[in-house]
Write a structure and sequence with these properties.
It is built from 14 helices and no strands. It is mainly α. The radius of gyration is 21 Å and the shape is globular. It is found in: Cell membrane.
């Protein structure tokens, strides 16, 4: 790890974790309010779910914008701009008079808040050794994973006591706290680079150079498709738990928190396991287990054997696997891009959120008052991620063998 003192590292990781968590926090806190939002805006829960999909789209598009800006202007200036946009959009959400306005304002909120996710990943690559990146990402997940514990519970209580609009007021307060932390505690990890071109052709060429790298596309897609299972759960869980199993808003918050503990625990166990096993080995086992759990969840749903407790237990195990997959795959996808960490981080996040937006929308489109749409999409994501990982690893190994043969040929010729 870098040569900062432990206390400095603690505050640094805390701020980076909060920056990464602003997106999940913005999602999780208003989930228990879906029925109240639908009632207050005279619409349906399915329509309110589209505001979740628009948030995912905003995060995806926004990260592609901020990647080049973080390379050109350094890390902190884009953070101030993006989080200010987030603040104003949150105010708009609190005052929204229709579901259409809420959908648009959530898009703007995501466009502002996603800068924290891009900058945090890039700064991990800036400030820490490559060998430490997976451990740092696991520590960031500890901060991020607190969000699914605190946010839905807080959102449920706030909605019950004050109404759903106050959820967005609390998000404004969180944003102001993060802005203060950036100003007082976060160092500038990369100086502005005026030579970095912001012309569309140069930006597209830069992204193309990153995405065609086997190391990047293998692990970026593995992380993104696996994480899409989490977003399918997030998008479908309000209907499943509150609509099908008839739990209250407060109970839903506690269930969401309990399931999130699997993600937290696994991400922290991951830092210990990394001392013995490689990231590739951990990903392989985690995805195999996650695929199996997904298939079992679908089978039990089709058979009608998935009561509340079985559903909670299986989703808990599913997210435990996610806690092992995501930090390792994210670290491996960025490992080769120290000179271009901002753009690589943006592309990673954009791929992740694009796939997440699609899966969340799929769960909404195929909603049939059962848990099957959520369960089926979760299972498909796990199986898809495992398939991409195996295929990508084969490509990387073949390329490595070909490179080794070429180097051996060159060495033999040079000795003649």
């Amino acid at each position: 790890m870098n040569n900062k003192r432990p206390t400095q590292n603690y505050y640094l990781i805390l701020i980076l974790g909060l920056l990464t968590a602003i997106g999940p926090f913005s999602i999780d806190m208003y989930l228990p309010a879906f029925p109240d939002i639908a009632k207050g805006l005279h619409t349906t829960v399915a329509q309110v779910m589209l505001s979740l999909s628009s948030f995912f789209i905003g995060i995806s598009a926004g990260q592609m914008i901020y990647g080049p800006l973080l390379e050109r202007f350094g890390r902190k200036k884009p953070l101030y701009v993006g989080l200010s946009i987030y603040l104003l959009a949150s105010l708009g959400c609190a005052l929204a008079a229709s579901v259409q306005a809420l959908i648009v304002l959530r898009l703007l909120q995501a466009l502002g808040g996603c800068v924290g996710m891009v900058a945090a990943r890039a700064m991990v690559r800036d400030l820490f050794d490559v060998s430490e990146n997976a451990k740092v990402f696991s520590m960031l997940m500890l901060v991020v994973a607190v969000s699914p514990i605190i946010a839905p519970t807080a959102g449920g209580y706030i909605t019950a006591a004050l109404g759903w609009r106050w959820v967005f007021v609390l998000l404004m307060i969180v944003d102001v706290i993060i802005l203060a932390g950036i100003y007082f505690l976060l160092p500038e990890s990369k100086q502005p680079n005026p030579d970095f071109s912001l012309k569309p052709v140069s930006i597209i060429s830069n992204f193309a150079g990153i995405i065609k790298h086997p190391q990047f596309y293998t692990y970026a897609l593995t992380a993104a498709i696996s994480a899409a299972g989490l977003y399918a759960y997030i998008g479908g869980s309000p209907s499943v738990f509150m609509g099908i199993f008839h739990v209250s808003e407060k109970q839903y918050g506690w269930i969401f928190a309990l399931i999130a503990m699997g993600l937290i625990g696994a991400s922290q166990i991951n830092t210990v396991i990394l001392k013995t096993y490689s990231s590739e080995q951990i990903i392989k086992v985690a995805l195999a287990c996650q695929s199996t759990i997904g298939v079992v969840l679908v089978a039990l749903t089709l058979l009608g054997w998935n009561d509340l407790f079985i559903t909670i237990f299986l989703i808990f195990l599913f997210l435990c696997c996610q806690g092992f997959t995501f930090p390792n795959a994210s670290a491996l996808s960025l490992a080769a891009f120290g000179h271009n960490a901002g753009s690589a981080s943006a592309l990673l996040g954009a791929i992740q959120m694009s796939i997440g937006a699609c899966t969340s929308a799929l769960v909404s489109v195929f909603q049939n008052n059962t848990a099957l749409p959520m369960a089926a999409v979760m299972a498909c994501c796990a199986i898809g991620a495992f398939s991409v990982f195996r295929l990508g690893r084969n490509i990387i190994c073949q390329k490595a063998r070909a490179t080794a043969v070429e180097e051996e040929d060159v060495e033999m010729i040079s000795t003649l």
